[in-house]
Design brief:
With 369 residues, the chain is an alpha/beta fold. The protein is built from ten helices and 14 strands. The chain has a six-stranded mixed β-sheet with strand order 3-4-5-9-10-14, sandwiched between helices. A three-stranded antiparallel β-sheet has the order 2-12-11. A three-stranded antiparallel β-sheet has the order 8-7-13. It is elongated and about 75 Å long. The N and C termini lie far apart (64 Å).
C-alpha cells in the first residue's frame, strides 16, 4: 500500500533522528545536539493524557539517574520534576510538542545544560536492540541528509593575499568527511595563513574534531580529556601522529571565527586550539555546551539527549560548559571576518619585504578598517 504524505513525512523525521542518534549512540557520545536539518518537515502534534505524561516522565527520570554526567544533579532534577507534578503544573500541558518543549526548558533551567533536550516525534521511534547497527534504510536516509549539507563544508577557498578560508557548519562522521578534510588541506596547502569560520557551527562528531585538528599540528598534541560517568573513566584525546593528506602544520597563523551560535563540537575545536596556542579566536563568546552525550528513547514518541561526560582541558583543567569559549579578540560575529583578515595582514606586513606588495597590503588594510 502506498504511504500517505503524512506517514512519509513522519518517516523522514524519524529516519533523520535515528541517523543522528546512531552518530552519537553508546559510550562514544558526541558534542552535539540535533543539528539544523535534522528536524525534518513539520509534524502532526499529538494530545497527551495523564498516563502518557507519566510514562515520559518516569522514563526521563530513569535515564537521568542512570546516565547523566553528574548523579547529584540528576537527583536534584528528579526532585524538582516530581514537585512540579505534585503541584499540577505539568498536567496542564496536553500538547506533545509543547510537553517536549516544557521539559527541555525545565531541565535546562535547573542545571543550565544546553545539551539536555527532549524531542517529540510523530512517527513511532523503534526500540533499539542491544548492539543494533543502523538499518540500511536508516543509513541511506542519514547519508542523504549529510550529503545535502556537504557534510558541513560550506566553503573552502582563498581570500586576498593568500589567506585560506574554510566555512564549516558541522563535524560529520570521520569516515564520511575524511576525504573532504584531506581535499581542503590540499587545496589550501600553499596559503600563508588560515581562517576557520565556525560562526554557524552547531556541533558534530568529536572524532572528526580530533581528525581536523591533526592536520594543524606537526606532532601528536594533547588537546583534551573526557570524563565519562559510565565506568567512571577518563579518555585521553590526542591529535593523530599520521594523516592521509597534506599536513598544514603549525608554523602558519590560524584564526578561528566564533559567534554566540557556535556550539558543542565547534566549541571543543575552538577551545582546544586556543589553549594549545595554535589559533587565536575572533568573534563572540560561544554558546557554552561542553557535555558530550547520547540520545535515549523515552517512549514511542519521545527522545532525550542525555549528557554523559564532560571535557577536561589539559591547560585549564576545566571546560567551557555554561560559560562558552571566550575569544581573544571580541567583536561582533558580523565583523569577525574583516577583523581576522586585519590581524593576519598586519602579521604579514611585519615580515613582507617587497615594497609593492607592502603597499597593496596597506591598501587592503585601509579598506578593511
Amino acid at each position: 500500500m502506498e504511504k500517505s504524505a503524512s506517514t512519509r513525512r513522519a518517516h523522514i523525521v524519524v529516519m533523520s533522528a535515528i541517523g543522528a542518534i546512531l552518530l552519537c549512540a553508546g559510550a562514544v557520545g558526541a558534542f552535539r545536539t540535533w543539528l539544523p536539518g535534522d528536524e525534518g518537515p513539520p509534524q502532526q502534534d499529538m494530545t497527551m493524557n495523564a498516563a502518557a505524561r507519566k510514562e515520559v516522565l518516569d522514563s526521563l527520570i530513569s535515564a537521568l539517574n542512570q546516565f547523566y554526567v553528574y548523579p547529584e544533579k540528576a537527583a536534584a532534577m528528579e526532585r524538582a520534576l516530581r514537585a512540579q507534578v505534585a503541584q499540577g503544573e505539568i498536567d496542564k500541558v496536553d500538547s506533545a510538542e509543547q510537553f517536549a518543549k516544557v521539559l527541555t526548558e525545565d531541565l535546562q533551567s535547573l542545571v543550565h545544560d544546553r545539551h539536555l533536550e527532549v524531542r517529540y516525534f510523530e512517527a513511532p521511534i523503534p526500540v533499539p536492540a542491544v548492539g543494533q547497527e543502523e538499518s540500511p534504510e536508516d543509513a541511506v536516509a542519514f547519508l542523504a541528509d549529510r550529503k545535502r549539507l556537504n557534510f558541513g563544508f560550506e566553503t573552502v577557498g582563498r581570500l586576498k593575499f593568500n589567506i585560506g578560508y574554510i566555512d564549516l557548519h558541522e563535524f560529520s562522521r570521520p569516515e564520511q568527511v575524511a576525504s573532504r578534510i584531506e581535499a581542503a588541506m590540499t587545496l589550501l596547502g600553499d596559503t600563508r595563513s588560515l581562517i576557520i569560520d565556525l560562526r554557524r557551527m552547531h556541533g558534530g562528531d568529536p572524532e572528526t574534531v580530533m581528525l581536523m585538528a591533526s592536520y594543524l599540528f606537526d606532532r601528536p598534541t594533547h588537546l583534551n580529556d573526557i570524563y565519562w560517568r559510565e565506568g567512571d573513566r577518563i579518555e585521553s584525546r590526542w591529535t593523530q601522529a599520521e594523516v592521509t593528506g597534506l599536513r598544514y602544520g603549525q608554523s602558519r597563523p590560524i584564526v578561528i571565527l566564533t559567534s554566540s551560535d557556535t556550539f558543542s563540537a565547534g566549541e571543543d575545536f575552538a577551545y582546544a586550539l586556543k589553549h594549545a596556542g595554535r589559533a587565536i579566536l575572533v568573534g563572540e563568546t560561544t554558546g557554552g555546551g561542553g557535555h558530550p552525550g547520547s540520545r535515549r528513547r523515552l517512549t514511542a514518541h519521545f527522545m532525550m539527549n542525555v549528557p554523559t561526560g564532560r571535557a577536561i582541558n589539559p591547560v585549564t583543567k576545566t571546560d567551557w560548559e555554561g560559560v562558552g569559549v571566550t575569544p581573544d579578540i571580541a567583536v561582533s560575529a558580523k565583523n569577525a571576518l574583516d577583523v581576522a583578515q586585519v590581524n593576519l595582514l598586519n602579521r604579514l606586513l611585519a615580515v613582507e619585504t617587497d615594497p609593492q606588495l607592502r603597499r597593496k597590503i596597506s591598501e587592503r588594510l585601509h579598506d578593511l578598517e
